[in-house]
Design goal:
This protein has 347 residues and is an alpha/beta fold. It is built from 10 helices and 14 strands. The strands form 2 sheets. It has a 12-stranded mixed β-sheet. A hairpin with a 5-residue loop joins strand 10 and strand 11. Bound molecules: S-adenosylmethionine. The site of S-adenosylmethionine has 20 residues, from strand 5 and helix 10. The site of S-adenosylmethionine (SAM) has 20 residues, from strand 5 and helix 10.
Length: 347
């Protein structure tokens, strides 16, 4: 019985968590990022070329039932407590609502969130909320529709604002905004973006641009750093450390003008947080990555389609995470950007 939702096999079964995803440095992965597609309906210049990419062949992409089976193994056997659906653009996945519903039926029930560009979210937010979606992060790099069209190469700024409104209206709070600042393009928007977020009760997080673009054009010299972002913000706002236990959270959190509003800065490059990373990643074609910057992946799709039992799949997943390196290595002289870009890994 799965509540008519279609996929979950063990909603009523007792949890069988018998092991954790532990690596050689003692980190435990409890946060699963699931990429539901490598495709996107935007072409953000720092992520994808204008013409798009060579997409994964449909037959390589996990079916909805396969995604749910792997999420179930993660949650019921391997101690996953948070599941975030991403992409590419996860709203391009027609079965998203059913995947969310099946995930919400799992026990122990994981926290379920979505990272999205927001296009089409307003139309689907009620169904996603009903399915069990707990939170949403919407990406918004600029308040200027014309700039948006330059950065994302699509005129969809109004859709993103509508998505934020819709998420807040349905009660998916806190609604989070992810923003990437690009030198000479929107690096003057740290303050306006924060004002916008504070006025509307959204939680804004700035993300340092990482070497994960498809064109391999990232350069440390032009990246807008966490220190620069904080300098711009402190010229206008009084920022004090939030005092909250950071745990495995990637964002350093600051109270804005004494709070309760906060702003987060994710300094993935200049202030890495690998030592407390608790993430494990599943690509749309069923590969486990133990790090955004990993150069190796572990194939769960082959096992799944070869008829492997859950225990065997869990073993492979566990071995993949055990091999996680201590850090992403961006500062190492021999650093090589992973073969897959952010959009294909799942951001
Ligand atoms: N399409 C969804 C979205 O727009 O949120 C999910 C996927 S997107 C890859 C996830 C996040 O990664 C977005 O906030 C995007 O701005 C960010 N991103 C993409 N490329 C990045 C890069 N090279 N460095 C830092 N963040 C990046």
């Amino acid at each position: 019985m799965d509540g008519g939702r279609g996929y979950a096999r063990s909603m009523t079964a007792a949890p069988v968590i018998d092991r954790a995803l532990v690596d050689a440095f003692g980190r435990v992965a409890t946060d699963l990022r699931v990429s539901l597609t490598d495709r996107c309906n935007l072409r953000c210049a720092y992520c994808m070329p204008a013409e798009g990419l060579e997409w994964l062949p449909t037959e390589d992409v996990l079916t909805d039932a396969e995604v749910v089976r792997l999420v179930e193994i993660g949650v019921t056997r391997l101690g996953i407590r948070e599941v975030r659906f991403t992409g590419g653009e996860p709203l391009l996945r027609p079965g998203l609502e059913r995947i969310v519903a099946a995930t919400a039926d799992l026990r122990p029930r994981p926290d379920i969130s979505l990272t999205t560009n927001g296009i089409g979210l307003a139309r689907r937010i009620d169904a996603l909320h009903t399915a069990g979606l707990d939170r949403v992060n919407v990406s918004l790099d600029t308040l200027d529709p014309d700039r948006f069209a330059v950065i994302a190469r699509r005129k969809r700024h109004a859709d993103v604002l509508a998505a934020l409104d819709a998420a807040a209206a349905v009660g998916l709070r806190p609604v989070k905004i992810n923003a990437v600042l690009l030198r000479g393009i929107n690096d003057d928007e740290a303050v306006p973006l924060l004002r916008f977020a504070v006025d509307r009760g959204y939680h804004l997080r700035f993300i340092e641009q990482m070497p994960l673009d498809a064109g391999h054009r990232w350069s440390r010299a032009t990246m807008v750093t966490a220190a620069e972002i904080l300098a711009a913000l402190t010229a206008e706002f009084d920022l004090t450390p939030s005092g909250e236990e950071r745990g495995s959270a990637p964002a350093e959190l600051w109270l804005v003008d004494g709070g309760p509003a906060t702003v987060g800065v994710i300094g993935s490059v200049t202030r890495p947080f690998c030592g407390s990373c608790d993430r494990t990643r599943l690509t749309a074609d069923g590969q486990i990555r133990n790090c955004l910057f990993a150069r190796e992946e572990s194939d769960l799709r082959g096992l799944l389609r070869g008829g492997a039992a859950d225990a065997e799949i869990a073993d492979r997943w566990q071995a993949a995470m055990a091999a996680k390196l201590p850090g992403h290595g961006i500062d190492d002289p021999g650093f090589l950007q992973p073969a897959r870009p952010m959009s294909a890994i799942g951001g």
